[in-house]
Amino acid sequence: MSDNKSARDKKSYPLDVLQRHLDTPQLLPHENAKEFIQLFDSLAEYGKPQTSRDYLAVHQATVLTWDILRYQQMKIGVLRSHQRPALESLLRKIKVRTASKMGISEVVAQSEARELAAPWFKDPASRPAMMRVIENAGYPPDALEVEAFQLALPALATIERLVVSAQKRLDKFLDDLERTSKASARALRLAAEKAIAANKSDQSQASMK
Known about the structure:
Blueprint: H1 2-23, H2 33-47, H3 52-81, H4 83-102, H5 106-122, H6 127-136, H7 143-178, H8 182-207
Helix pairs in contact: 1-3, 2-3, 2-8, 3-7, 3-8, 4-5, 4-7, 7-8
């Protein structure tokens, strides 16, 4: 009797552990647990797990895929966080260019640039007029995005290295899994690739807003 109970415990324990991981996924404060579960379900739909080992493999693939999605999402956050410095930088360049003609010091020009940039983030209605100022100074319509990208480039390069590292971890896990379960590994790889591609598409749309 006790032997049968022990056997049942051994079978159920991995799934109990998995359920605990799904109930309390290790996410950052701003990340959505429901989206993590949706990713797990998406990979499970492709992988069609049958055993506790299969389910744990799906969970590990989910965690590794989530890392990639997390870093990709950070790129958008970094670019957005550089919008204000980028706008101030553009306005400072414009002010400094005319400072010598008007007898204004560079320090004053920088201060004025910060003041001019403030309404952009407080009142969206002020943005068309601000863009005309930027374009009249000879900058293209996408000057703000370009300036933000240039300022964010060091941080973006670091995140890109994290993306590459996360992708390598996922690939290694799936390569190892393929040695024992080729069909499952290939299905999980396809599902992960689709999730990553969909996230990139969403990011492209978000970056244009």
